[in-house]
Amino acid sequence: MTQTQELDLRIHAVNTERNVVEAALAQQFPAFTALTPRPASAAGQVGLHARPDELAPQVTEALYGEALEVLEELEGGWAWIRTLHDGYLGYARSEGLSEVRPASVKITALRAHLYAAPSIKAPLLSRLSSGAGLHVLGEQEQHGEYSWWRVAFKDREGFVRTSATEPQEPGDFEDELRQYLGVPYVWGGRSAWGIDCSGLAQLVTRLPLPRDADQQRDVLPATRTPRQGDLAFFPGHVGIMLDERRMIHANATHMAVSIETLGEGSYGRKLAQTLTGFGRVPDDLGAAQDAAK
């Protein structure tokens, strides 16, 4: 087994074609060039690809304002980057990155838009999704009947309705998840504009889960009897339990987020037959991860 085969290349930055390696692994690869990362943030909804090619599969997605690090600038306007909240690697267009700006407000609406001017008739600059962070440039502004935030966007400014950032009253867990019903299934997606199974698990648990289903399974303690909020695992798939049998998940069968009852209906029976186990989602995921090491 080679050194790279021993590493999970989704989270460990080693490239044998370019002979480069992240600084933390430099001693293991003394012949490689050690990379010096620089901080950045997502200047919009940024897709990360498996290769520096628009036609390469999307492996994950950074939400507007999420913290990143740029490991390497490549020819053709691409960059090798890591999403800091889960350590995942991928290639993104450099134009989708910006300098780090502290997030003043977060999007709480399921979906929103960034406008070029404080008007619902203005051109759209970017799509926004729940969890996106915005750097505000001043106080709220009233234009007509609506209140707006003026926010930083790349080398200019944009505007978002303040209603999209208002605190949400804590509600029923199932009702919160039902907001995602019908959201399109998109491989590598992490937003309410398009999402995959493990991306949904990351968003709705609001805990520092790893990106992919197998990684999530590895950090959660197993449980035989699931409770609301626990994760259900299948080969290459994950769902969130609403109770002991009902599960909400983003799936390619319906090409959307849907609810299934394990063991009922043709799809529910198939899921029950391929179930590999349940993972208990604790209140303190960090402590659970430390215990699993």
TrEMBL record:
It comes from Deinococcus ruber. One of its GO terms (molecular function) is cysteine-type peptidase activity. InterPro entries: NLP_P60_dom, Papain-like_cys_pep_sf, Peptidase_C40, SH3_16. Gene3D superfamilies: endopeptidase domain like (from Nostoc punctiforme), SH3 Domains. PROSITE patterns: NLPC_P60 (PS51935). Keywords: Hydrolase, Protease, Thiol protease. This is Peptidase. Residues 167-279 form the NlpC/P60 domain. Belongs to the peptidase C40 family. GO terms for biological process: proteolysis. SUPFAM superfamilies: Cysteine proteinases (SSF54001).
